[in-house]
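SAMPLE LOG
Freezer: B-3
Tube label: C17
Construct: single chain, 541 aa
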Amino acid sequence: MILNKQTIQDRKAWADMGIKTPSYDYEQMRQNTRKTPVWMHIGPGNIFRAFLAPLAQQLIEEGDMQSGITAVCTFDQEMMDKIYDPYDDLALQVIMHADGKLDKMVVASIGESLKAEPGQEEAWARIKEIAAAPSLQMISFTITEKGYAIKNLKGEFYPDVVDDFANGIANEIPKHGMSMVAKMLYYRYLAGGAPIAVVSMDNCSHNGEKLYASVHTIVQKWVENHLVEQGFLDYVEDDKRVSFPWTMIDKITPRPDAKVSEQLNKIGFESTELVVTSKNTYIAPFVNAEVSQYLVVEDNFPNGRPPLEKTGVYFCDRDTVNLVERMKVCTCLNPLHTSLAIFGCLLGYTSIAEEMKDETLRTLVNKIGYDEGMPVVADPKIIEPKQFANEVITVRLPNPFIPDTPQRIACDTSQKLSIRFGETIKLYVERDDLDVQTLTFIPLTLAGWCRYLMGVDDNGNQMPLSPDPMLDVVCAYVKDVHLGDAESAKGKLKPILQNKTIFGVDLYEVGLGKKVEDYFVQMCEGKGAVRRLLDKEVLGK
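STRUCTURE (predicted):
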C-alpha cells in the first residue's frame, strides 16, 4: 500500500493492515480549507505531523472543524518536495508504546501546503490571500527556538534581517522567516486589520515573547525606515487585535526510525523512505512518537479558535502556562534528560531507554527530580508535578521503542543549563528553609558536563561532541586537562563556573563552585573514574 489520496479511499485495505484512516470526505476538507482558512501552521516537520495535525484531525472527525490546516514551510523546501508533494500532504502517525505495540493512523488534516521562499511567487500570492482572510484565526509555529532568532551570538542582526529592514516591503517575499510573518500581518492589516493569534508551539520558554520580540523589531524598523505606516505598528502592539499567546508543548518525537520503517514494510505499507535533506532535516512519510503528549496554551485568541480543549489541550492564563513550563523545564523532565545526555555520552550509551536500565543513572535522575527539584518545583495546579515526573521516569524515559539518543539531547547544552539547573540553584539560595550546600546531584551533573567537554569518554576513547554554539569557548578551558592526570584538572574550571550566562549563577558566588570542581577532578583521575564517582555519590558504593 502506497500513501496517497486515492489509496486512503480503500478504508478496508488500510484497516486490514491495522491502520486507521479518516472517515470524513478528504477532498471536501481540502476545498473547505482553501475557501475558508482557519489555521495556518509554519514549520510542518515531525512534531507538527505527530501531534498538532492529529489534533485537528480529531476535530474534523467530530464535526468541530470543517477546514483543515494550511501548512507553510519557510525553511528547507526539500522537505516539501520529498515528503509532502509526493504523498498528497498525507502522513502516517506511528505511536510507539513501551510494550512494542504500534498505533498507526493516516493523518489527513492538512488541507493545503505552500512553500514560502524567494522564487515561489505563486505560493506567496496564495499565502497573501490566506493571511488577509477574515476567517483565519491563528498562525502557529514549530520552527525550533533558532527559527525566532534575528541576531547572531554576538548580538548582531543577521544579514538577511538587515536586508529585510530595508527591502522587506519592496521585495514581494522577504528573506528571513520572521520578516515573512511580519509581512503576512501587514497584508492582514491592509485588508482591514482583522484580529489574529500568532502562536508559537515550540519547546522553548516564553515562546510567545520570543516570537513577538522578533516580529515587533522588524515592524519597528519598517516604521523607522518609512516603509509602513505607524498604524501597522499599533496593530501589532494591540493584544486585542494581534495576540502572541505563550504555550508549553511536550511530546518526544525522535527522527523517523529505520526499525519502524521495517515493521511498516512487513505489514505492506510501502511509503517508508527515510529522508535526510541537504539542510539536515530527518523526515519520512511516517512520523514516530511517544504516547504521552501535553499542550498548554494561553487562552488569548481575539478572532476565536478551534475547540482544541476537546482534544486534551489545556487552555489557561499566561501565568499558568509559565508555571507548567517551569515545572517541566526546571524539574520534571528537561534536567533529567540533560543529565542522562551528559553521562550517557561519557559512558558510551546510544539510547536513553538503555540508560534507564542502569541502576546508577536511573537513581541519579530520581534524585535530581524528586530529592533536589521537588522542594522548589513550580506547581501549576492543572498538572500535578509528582504525577508528571512519575510518568517521565517510569514510562516515558524507559520506553525502549523511542529511538532517542543522549547524543541528540546533548546538542546545545550550554544554552540549557541556566534554565534546567540554574533556576533550581537560585531558589535554594533564595529560600531560608533550604541550604544550597545540600545539593549534590545537580553539581555532579554540571561537573559531568565539564568532563564531557574534554571529548574523551570514560574508557579513554575520543568522543565526538554534539553541536553547541559555545563549544569553542568552553572547550578551550579544558584543553590542557588530561585523563589520568588529576593534577592537570585542578584550577581550570573557575572561568566557566563563574559564567552566569551558562549556569544562570556564578557557582563560586553561591557556594557550589568548589564542589563542582572537586567532582570534575575526580572524574579526570583515569579510565572508569566517571563511573566510580557516580556509583559512590549516587548509590553510596
